[in-house]
Amino acid sequence: MLPGTSPIGELADVDPRAIPSDLLQSGKPVVLRGLVANWPMVQASRGPAEASVAYLRGFERADAPPVVATVGPPEIGGRFFYNDDLSGFNFRQEHVPLGVALKTLLKYAQQDTSPAIYIGSTTIDTWLPGFRERNDLTIPGAEPLASIWIGNRTRIAAHQDVPDNLACVVAGRRRVTLFPPDQLRNLYIGPLDHTPAGQPISLVDFAAPDYERFPRFREAQAHALTAVLEPGDAVLIPSLWWHHMEALEDFNVLVNYWWRQTPAWMDTPMNALMLAIMTVRDLPPEQRANWEDVFRHYVFQPGEATADHIPEGARRVLSPLDETQARSLRARLLQRLNR
C-alpha cells in the first residue's frame, strides 16, 4: 500500500435496484459497501475457491470462443508490465477455454509459487449467458457493458478509462488506488501507442516507487485515494480517474459496468488526442499557440462569438451534433486521412 494516501469516501445501504443517478453522475469516486452482497456469486465466494469456480462454470457456454489469458512468470510478482527497455512486455497471452483457465487458477491456488494469471475484460453475456439474470445491477439511464475479470494475485498499473466505471468485487479482495485526472504529469505515463492492455499506464511501481527516477510521484501520492474492497463491495470510478488495481487473494473475480454520459455515436476523445499529436504538437511554437486559440474558441470555450453570427440552418458542425451529422463528419475525416 502506498504511504500518504487518503481513504475513498464510502456509502453503505445503497439499494442496488435504485442507485441514485446524481451519485453516478457526480464525477466523484465512492466505495459502495455491500452493494452486491446479496448476489449468489458473492455468496458462493464466501466458501472455498472451488465453490466460486463451480458457480461460474454453471453458466459456461459450451460453444464459447476461447478467452484471452494473460500469463506472467512468478518473478514479476503479479505486476503485468513492460520489459526492461519498454520494447515489449513481461507476460504472454494465451487463448484458452474459460473452463481450462478456471481449472488452472485452482491448481496454482494450492501452490506457494505460481505464475500470474489474468483473464481481463471478458464480456459476461458472451461467455457466461444467464449469469446476469441472477447477478446484475441497473445503471439508471444507461445500457452499460458488463464484463468479468478473473485472476490470482495480480497488479494492474494505474491507467484511466473514458467511460464511467462501477467495479464490483464478487470473489477475493482488491485494493484500489485512485488519482484525479489532473495528476497526469505526476504519474509518469508510458507510451500512448504501445501499451500492455490498450490504455496508457503509469511507469511507477506502486510496490516500490523509485522517487529518484519519478520525483513528481510524491505529489501524486498526496492526492491518492485508496480502499480495500471485500466481496460484495463496489467502487465508482468516474471517467478519466486514474486507477491502480491489486488483487489480494489466490482467486479473485470482479464484475464491472462501463457506460458513457454521452450518446453512443460520439467518438472517443483519445482519437482527437492522437490526431492532435500528429498534426499540431510539432508545429512551430507561434503556429501551435495560434491553434491553441482556435481549439479554445471552437472546442473548449465555445460561446456566442463562436457561431451566433451564422444563420442557424447554416452552422453545420458548429451546431449541436447529432448521429447523422457525426456519421457524415466521420466519413469526411476518413476521406481526408486516407488521401
From TrEMBL:
Annotated ranges, domain JmjC: 117-274
Coiled-coil positions: none
InterPro entries, A to Z: Cupin_8 (IPR041667), JmjC_dom (IPR003347), RmlC-like_jellyroll (IPR014710)
Gene3D superfamilies: Jelly Rolls
A Pfam family annotated for this UniProt entry: Cupin_8
Protein name: Cupin-like domain-containing protein
Organism: Lysobacter arenosi
